[in-house]
Amino acid sequence: MVLVSSPDQIGFWRDLLAGQDTAAGDDDTVVVLRRYDRRGLRDWTQQHNVYETEERLTRLAAVTGGWPILLDKVLELRHAHQDQDSALEKLEKLEKWLTTKENVQEFIDAVGLEPTATAGEHELIRRCYEAVVGELGVEWNLEADCVTAAELAGLSPEDAPWALACLESLQALDRQGPRLRVEPVLHQALGILSAQD
Asked: Does residue 14 register a pLDDT over 90?
C-alpha cells in the first residue's frame, strides 16, 4: 500500500499510523516515503553528474533538505546552465525561488501540509507542529517531550502521538532514535508563508 501526501488522505492515515491494530489489516505495513538523506543525495548527484564535490553536496543538502520537489527544481535550473561552475549559483536561484509566497505554497502543498487549517485532522497536525516549535524550538528533542508539548497545546493524549506520527510521515520531523527535530528547509518555508500572510 502506498500513501501519497494529499489532504483527503490524512483521516485514512489516522487508522494506519495509530498502532499495531490498524484498520487496514494485519498483513499491511506502512512504509514512509523519505526525503533523500546524505547517502541518497550522493547517489542522486552521481546519477545526474552534478554537485559531486563534498562542498557542493553539503550546500545541496542545506538548500533542498533532500526534498524531491526541490531537487527537481535544481534539475530544471541545470538545463539553463550546463557547466559545473554555475552549480552554486543555481542553488542561490533556488533559494530565491523559495522566498515568494506562490513558490513556497507550491512546495508546502507538495509536502502535504495545510499550515492554515482550522478544522479536522489537518488542524491537529498544524497545532502539533506549532506546539513543538513554540515550546521546544527547532533542534533535537525527545519524542516524549514533543508529545507533552502537543498535549499542553490542547491535543488529547490520543491525538498528540498520532499528530507527531503524521508529521514524521510527512517528513516535517526528522528522527534520530528517540529524538525528533523540525526539518529546517520546510520550517523556513512555513516561516516565509506565515510572514507574508
From this structure: no
The amino acid sitting at 94 is: L
Q: 141: alpha, beta or left, given left = phi > 0 and alpha = psi -120 to 50?
A: beta
In the predicted model, is pLDDT for residue 50 greater than 90? no
What the block records as the C-alpha cell of 96 is 530565491
**CA gap 69, 73 in Å, rounded:** 6
CA 6 to chain centre: 13
pTM of the model: 0.82
What grid cell was written down for 163?
A: 499528530
Long-range contacts of 139-147 (CB under 8 A, 24+ apart): 139/181, 140/176, 140/179, 140/180, 140/181, 141/179, 141/180, 141/181, 142/178, 142/179, 142/180, 143/178, 143/179, 143/180, 144/178, 146/173, 146/180
**Mean predicted confidence (pLDDT) in 115-137:** 91
Residue reference for cell 484498520: 23
The residues pairing with 173 across neighbouring beta strands, listed in sequence order, are 182
The DSSP letter of residue 30 is -
Show the cell assigned to 182: 523540525
